[in-house]
Design brief:
Shape: extended
InterPro entries: LUBAC_E3_Ligases, Rcat_RBR_RNF216, RING-HC_RBR_RNF216, TRIAD_supradom, Znf_RING/FYVE/PHD
Largest sheet: 2 strands, antiparallel
Radius of gyration: 36 Å
GO molecular function, one term: zinc ion binding
Helix content: 40-55%
Protein name: RING-type domain-containing protein
Strand content: 5-15%
Oligomer: single chain
Number of strands: 14
Keywords: Membrane, Metal-binding, Repeat, Transferase, Transmembrane, Transmembrane helix, Ubl conjugation pathway, Zinc, Zinc-finger
Pathway: Protein modification; protein ubiquitination
Strand order of the largest sheet: 1-2
Distance between the termini: 86 Å
Length: 662
C-alpha cells in the first residue's frame, strides 16, 4: 500500500509538470503515457507532442460555463464528447453505437472514437439526422440512484430487480422507464399490497452503486489533480440532481396536464347540463356547447373542434390538400361560403401543438419552394436563383402571348374556312378536302395551330387545368437550368443539397429514399424494442425464442422473462407449479409467473408497429404524401394511352413556349 501511494504521488507530480507545459491536457492521456516511460518521462512525452506538431488531447470544455470552463467530471466529459460526435462529427451515426464506443475508453474520448469510426467501412445510421435527445445521454451514478429510488416509490408493486432491468433497457432514463413500467401494469391489487409489505425497503446506496458501469473519476485515480477542489464534486452532484429534477418535473407536468384535461372534461359535462339549448355542428350534426364550437370568419357556419381537427389532420397527413395552404377554408357543404378559420383560434384553442407545428412547417416549405431561394440543408446558407424569371412575371407575359395567340388562331381559322368555301363554290366538288390538307402541309404555322387545338380538345377529356400544367412545366424548366443539386458556398460547409427534397446528398441520391428507409427502420426498431429484454448488470439485450422463462445471462445474472425480476435466489420457485386442467389457462390458486407461457408478443409487436408508423408519419408529412396510392392494377386502355399522349404533348408545347418567355 505504501509503495502504491508513493507511485501515485510521483505520477501526480509528473502530471502536474505536464500540465504546466500543456495546459488543459487530458489527465487520463498523460497518465497513460507515463506507463510507457521509466526514465525522463516528462521530457520524452513533451518531445513526442512537439514532434506531433504540438497537438495533444485536451479536456473537453463547456462554453456555457463561466470562469474555469474545463469539465472535470467524467460523466459530463462523456456526454460532451457524445454531443460533439453525435451532432457535429457523425450526425448520421446511431447514438447508441457511439455511446457504447465511448464507454470503452478512459481518455481522449473524441479522438479515439472518431478514429475508430473513420476506420470502419460502415456504421449503423440513426433515424433523425443530427438529433440528440436528453434520454440518449450517459447517466451518472447519482442520477441512477435517484431514478431507481424514485421508481421504487412510484411503483411499489414492482420488484426492484425488475425496475433495474427496465432502467437498463432504457439507458437508465427515468422518463422512459416510468412509461414502460406504467404500460407493464401492476398485476392486481393484492399483489401490490403483498409486494409493498414484503419487499419494501429504503434504497441502499451501496447496492445501487454496484450496478454502475461508469467508474467515477476519483475511483479511477487516487490523484487529487483531476479533482483538486472539493466544491467541483459538489457542483457535479448538484448538476446531477438538477438533471433528475428536470425529468421528475416532466412526469409531474404530465400528470398535471392529464388532471387538467379531466377537469376540463368534467366542466364541459356540467356546462352541457346547465345549458338550455345546444348548438348543432354543421358537419357531424352533433349538439355541443359554445365552448366546443368554432365559427368560420364569415360567422355563418359553426363546427365542433373534433370535426375541424379531423379535417386538418386529413389535409396534412392524408390527402395533403392543406399542406402549404395559407388559409384553412370553411368546411361547409355550401359552396358559396368564402370564410376560413382564423389562425389564432386554431393555434390556441382547436388544434394540438404537434398538428399546428406540422401545418406551420408545411407553409414554410411551400413558401421556400416558390421563393426561388436555394438553401443549404446543413447550415442554412441561401442564394437567390436568377436562372429563371419568377412564375408570376412569366404568367403575366404568357397571358399577353396567349391573348394574341387566340386572335391569330381565330384569324387563321377564318382564312382557312373562307379559302375552302371559295374553292368549293368555284369547283363544286369534294376535292376541297385535298386542298385543306395541302394547306396544312405547306403552311407550318397552320399545322401547329390546328395540332395545338386538337391537343387542347383531347387533353384530359377537354378538362384542361392550365394553371397546374404551367406550374409543372415551370418546375421542369427551372430544374433543367439550375440542376437538382445545390452546392453550399459556405467555406465551413461546402455540402451538397438536393433542391427537390431539401436533403443532404451523399453518393447516389434518390429523393425521399432516406425517409422511406427511415419509416421502415423506425417501425422495425419499435417492433424489436417491444419484445426485447436487457440485463441490468452487463447491458446485454436479448429475446427469447423458446424454452422456459428463467433467463440466465452470460454474466451470471438470472431474471424472469415475464416480470424481469431477479430470481438468482428463488430460481424455479418463482414460477407457478400448480396443476391445471386446461393447459395454458391462468392459475386460480396463485399469481406467480408461468414457467413457459408468456404474453402474446404478436399483439405487442403489431401495436408497437402501428404506433411507430403513426408517430413517424405525423412527424414527416412529406413521407405520407409520397406513399404509393392504391390503384387498380391492369392494362391501360387505348383511350387512356391517347389521353396521356395528348397531355404530354401539350406539356411539351407549353414547355417550349414558356422556355422562350422565362
Amino acid at each position: 500500500m505504501g509503495r502504491q501511494y508513493k507511485n501515485d504521488y510521483k505520477n501526480d507530480y509528473l502530471i502536474a509538470q505536464l500540465l504546466v507545459l500543456f495546459p488543459g491536457g487530458d489527465l487520463g492521456y498523460f497518465r497513460s503515457c507515463l506507463g510507457y516511460y521509466e526514465t525522463a518521462p516528462v521530457e520524452r512525452i513533451a518531445e513526442k507532442i512537439f514532434n506531433n506538431g504540438g497537438h495533444y488531447p485536451r479536456l473537453i470544455t463547456n462554453d456555457n460555463s463561466n470562469g474555469d470552463n474545463i469539465i472535470h467530471n467524467r460523466t459530463q466529459q462523456l456526454n460532451q464528447a457524445l454531443r460533439l460526435l453525435a451532432t457535429e462529427f457523425f450526425p448520421d451515426c446511431n447514438v447508441t453505437y457511439i455511446r457504447e464506443k465511448l464507454l470503452k475508453y478512459e481518455h481522449s474520448y473524441v479522438e479515439q472514437v472518431a478514429n475508430e469510426l473513420l476506420q470502419e467501412k460502415a456504421y449503423p445510421e440513426r433515424l433523425e439526422y443530427g438529433k440528440l435527445d436528453r434520454s440518449d445521454l450517459i447517466k451518472s451514478d447519482t442520477y441512477r440512484i435517484h431514478a431507481e429510488a424514485q421508481l421504487a416509490i412510484d411503483y411499489p408493486q414492482v420488484w426492484k430487480s425488475s425496475i433495474r432491468a427496465v432502467l437498463a433497457e432504457n439507458n437508465w432514463d427515468y422518463v422512459k422507464s416510468y412509461d414502460q413500467l406504467q404500460d407493464m401494469g401492476s398485476g392486481g391489487f393484492w399483489t401490490t399490497i403483498r409486494n409493498f409489505f414484503r419487499h419494501w425497503s429504503f434504497p441502499s446506496t451501496s447496492s445501487s452503486t454496484s450496478l454502475s458501469i461508469i467508474p467515477s473519476a476519483s475511483s479511477s485515480s487516487p490523484s487529487k489533480i483531476f479533482n483538486n477542489n472539493h466544491n467541483k464534486s459538489d457542483n457535479n452532484k448538484d448538476d446531477d440532481n438538477k438533471e433528475f429534477e428536470h425529468d421528475l418535473q416532466i412526469i409531474r407536468r404530465r400528470a398535471l396536464d392529464i388532471q387538467s384535461k379531466e377537469d376540463a372534461k368534467i366542466a364541459l359535462e356540467i356546462n352541457e347540463h346547465e345549458y338550455d339549448e345546444l348548438i348543432t355542428c354543421q358537419c357531424c350534426y352533433g349538439d355541443y356547447v359554445i365552448e366546443q364550437l368554432t365559427f368560420c370568419s364569415e360567422g355563418t357556419h359553426v363546427f365542433c373542434h373534433e370535426c375541424i381537427q379531423h379535417y386538418i389532420s386529413e389535409g396534412l397527413f392524408g390527402q395533403g390538400s392543406l399542406r402549404g395552404a395559407a388559409r384553412i377554408p370553411c368546411i361547409s357543404m355550401e359552396n358559396d361560403c368564402d370564410g376560413c378559420f382564423q389562425h389564432d383560434i386554431l393555434e390556441n384553442i382547436v388544434l394540438s401543438q404537434d398538428i399546428w407545428s406540422a401545418y406551420q412547417k408545411s407553409i414554410f416549405e411551400e413558401n421556400l419552394r416558390h421563393s426561388k431561394i436555394a438553401r443549404c440543408s446543413a447550415c442554412g446558407y441561401c442564394e437567390l436563383d436568377e436562372s429563371t424569371l419568377p412564375l408570376d412575371t412569366a404568367l403575366q407575359r404568357l397571358n399577353i402571348i396567349m391573348m394574341g395567340a387566340r386572335w391569330i388562331m381565330v384569324l387563321f381559322l377564318l382564312y382557312i374556312v373562307m379559302t375552302l368555301l371559295l374553292y368549293k363554290k368555284e369547283n363544286n366538288d369534294s376535292s376541297f378536302v385535298v386542298v385543306a390538307l395541302l394547306l396544312l402541309v405547306y403552311n407550318p404555322l397552320m399545322f401547329i395551330i390546328v395540332f395545338t387545338m386538337v391537343l387542347m380538345l383531347n387533353t384530359r377529356f377537354g378538362q384542361w387545368n392550365l394553371k397546374e400544367d404551367i406550374e409543372t412545366v415551370y418546375d421542369r424548366i427551372a430544374c433543367a437550368r439550375r440542376g437538382s443539386i445545390f452546392q453550399c458556398r459556405n467555406p465551413e460547409c461546402r455540402r451538397l443539397t438536393c433542391v427537390l427534397c431539401q436533403h443532404i446528398v451523399r453518393g447516389l441520391h434518390k429523393c425521399w429514399e432516406k425517409e422511406q428507409d427511415g419509416l421502415r427502420l423506425y417501425v422495425e426498431k419499435a417492433m424489436a424494442d417491444a419484445v426485447k429484454r436487457t440485463c441490468p448488470v452487463c447491458g446485454l439485450s436479448f429475446q427469447k425464442e423458446d424454452g422456459c422463462n428463467k433467463i440466465v445471462c452470460r454474466c451470471g445474472y438470472t431474471m424472469c422473462y415475464v416480470c424481469r425480476k431477479d430470481i438468482r435466489k428463488e430460481s424455479y420457485a418463482h414460477f407457478c407449479d400448480h396443476f391445471r386442467d386446461m393447459p395454458g389457462a391462468p392459475c386460480d390458486r396463485c399469481k406467480k409467473c408461468d414457467l413457459y407461457k408468456t404474453d402474446p408478443e404478436d399483439e405487442a409487436v403489431t401495436r408497437a408497429a402501428n404506433k411507430a408508423r403513426r408517430e413517424y408519419l405525423r412527424a414527416h408529412p412529406e413521407v405520407a404524401a409520397s406513399q404509393p396510392n392504391h390503384v387498380i392494377i391492369g392494362p391501360i386502355s387505348t383511350f387512356e394511352k391517347l389521353n396521356d399522349w395528348g397531355h404530354e404533348s401539350m406539356l411539351w408545347v407549353l414547355q417550349q413556349a414558356l422556355d422562350f418567355i422565362v
